[in-house]
Structure formats: structure tokens, C-alpha cells
Amino acid sequence: MTFKKTMFITLCAWLLCVSFAHAQNIKVAVIPDTPRLGEPFTVGVKIQGAVPSQLRAVLVTAAGQRLNSALCFTVDPNSPIKAAILSVPSTAQAGPARIYIESGATLVAESRITILDRIFASEEISLDAHNTALRTVADPQKTRESNLLWAIISHTGKDIYTNDKFILPVSTPRRTSFFGDRRVFRYSNGSSDRSIHAGVDYGVPTGTKIKACAAGKVVLAASRIVTGNSVIIEHLPGVYSLYYHLNTIAVAAGTILNAGDIIGESGATGLATGPHLHWEIRVATENSDPDAFVARVILDKAVLSDKLEK
Ligand SMILES: [Zn+2]
């Protein structure tokens, strides 16, 4: 073997070692690593050396099914830590699951979590002819509105508007429907349909002031066929709160809000059987239990660096 060839092979071996070492220098923390069905969790990633581009965190079942995924974002420009916020679908199976960290199609790290079980309530809702038509009649405008909403909640931005626990959008504790309710709609023509309630309903009278549940930016303030007067606020990369059936809207797209700012008044616009506020949170498009955001800080920088700096 010539000297040149030997040098070439040595160099290749060294490069392989370096990339292998890089792959070994990725730390992953999942907070909490025992989320319940329908609850959010944060994936922290700390990489020593070159950071692969377009890092993505993916929730994968033990059987290999991908349930939810989100792009990683920079938590702090002065820190090597990246994070992604995900949510367990309320329809997932409880038990062991995995978190993949991917760069493009390459798996660069992996962690394990346990999804905890919970029971969801069942409810039956009878709809009159008007509300039946709102749910069942095909309408190109409904499709356009649904495509626009999907485009908004599919976007993972870069801005971190809040580091706090969320607050409730109304002061009344009276809830008329709960997150994850398994619903049967009884239509006026005798047929029925099933769905899962994506948020929490508060039975408040028309005109009740509605508060932003956390600081953020208004990304939609518009009338929609099914959800009536609607507001969507972006809070964290891929994390949005949604407010439906408002009587009036007091904000416009682009408005920057503090937690507690008034976004409008409750009502019964769109598909509603009475005045109420529908409050929903989306995480990487998945509906996520709002109570989890009130109970704890979803992106806690101190906890993240504590887990990853050890
Ligand atoms: Zn609702």
C-alpha cells in the first residue's frame, strides 16, 4: 500500500470516528417523560459540536407508528440547547413509546417515555336542523377555512412569547364540555356522527369578557362558518390557543398580547347550542389538554438546562 493510500484510509477512519463521536454527544431530555393521554411534553436536545440541520422530534409508538412531530427551535441564542414541544394524541395507546430526534431522514438520537392512561367522558349532543346543516352540508368556504386553519397551526415559528403558566380565559369554573370528550352528534334527520372534543367549553353568558390565556401574537381574528367569530394566538413555536363562538372580537391579526388581555366577548356564533366559550390548544397540530398548560410551565428553560447540563 502506498503512503498516499494509507493516509487516505487513516483520514477516512478519523472522519468516521468524528461523526460517530458527534452522534454520541447528543443528550435528550423529555419533560415530563410520563405524559398522560392528551397531554403536552417538551423535548430538550443538547448537541456538542456541529448541529445537524432541521432537527425534528417525533413521538413514535412501540409498534413504530409516528403520532406527532415538531421541528426543534433555539431556546436561547446563547445556549446550545434546542427544544420541541409535542403532545400525545388523546386517542393514543397508553404504554411505552419512543422519542426520535431526526435530521432529515437520519435518526440522530432516541429517548424513551411512558404514556399514562386516563379516562375521557362521553356525551351526546342533539343538533337542530340549522346546526345539523353546519356540520354536514359540504361547502367550499368551509374547506377553505379549514385549510387556512390547518396551515396556521402547522407552522412552527421561532418566537417564544411566554415562559409562564397559562391562565384560564374566563373566571367561571363552570364547564359544559371537557377536553377529549367522546361525542355522539344526533342529527335532526335521525342520523348520527362521532367526534372527539378538542378543547374545553365554558357555559358563560353572551358578552362575557374573554382573556388571552398567555402572552402571544394574534394569528387569526375572523368569522368562520363552523366556529363562528374565532381568534387564534401563537404562544410558542407550534403552540396555539383557539377561542370560538365569540360574539365580538376585540383584536386583529398581528396584535401582540399579554396574558389576560381581552380578546373579545363570548357568544353563540357558528355551530353552538347555546352561549359558551370553546377554548382549545394545539401543539404541532395535535389538540392538547389546556389544563396541562395551566398546571405547569410548558417551556421551562431552567428545568431544561438542569436536565441537559448534568
Ligand atoms: Zn367546544
Any descriptors?
single chain; 310 residues; alpha+beta; four-stranded antiparallel β-sheet; 21 strands; binds zinc ion
Give the helix/strand layout.
Layout: H1 3-24, E1 26-31, E2 40-47, E3 55-61, E4 66-71, E5 73-74, E6 81-87, E7 95-103, E8 106-115, E9 122-126, H2 129-136, H3 140-153, E10 175-177, E11 182-186, E12 192-196, E13 199-202, E14 209-211, E15 216-224, E16 228-236, E17 239-249, E18 256-257, E19 262-266, E20 277-283, E21 286-288, H4 290-295, H5 301-309
The structure holds zinc ion (ZN).
Strand content: 35-45%
The shape is globular
Bound molecules: zinc ion
The major β-sheet equals: 10 strands, antiparallel
Alpha-carbon Rg, integer: 23 Å
Unreliable stretches: 9-23
CATH class of the largest domain: Mainly Beta
Total count of domains? 2
CATH superfamily of the largest domain: Glucose Permease (Domain IIA)
Distance between the termini: 46 Å
Order of helices and strands: HEEEEEEEEEHHEEEEEEEEEEEEHH
Which structural class should the secondary elements be placed in? alpha+beta
Count of runs of 4 or more consecutive helical residues? 5
Query: What is the count of β-strands?
Result: 21
> Helical residue percent?
10-25%
Fold-level CATH name of the largest domain: Glucose Permease (Domain IIA)
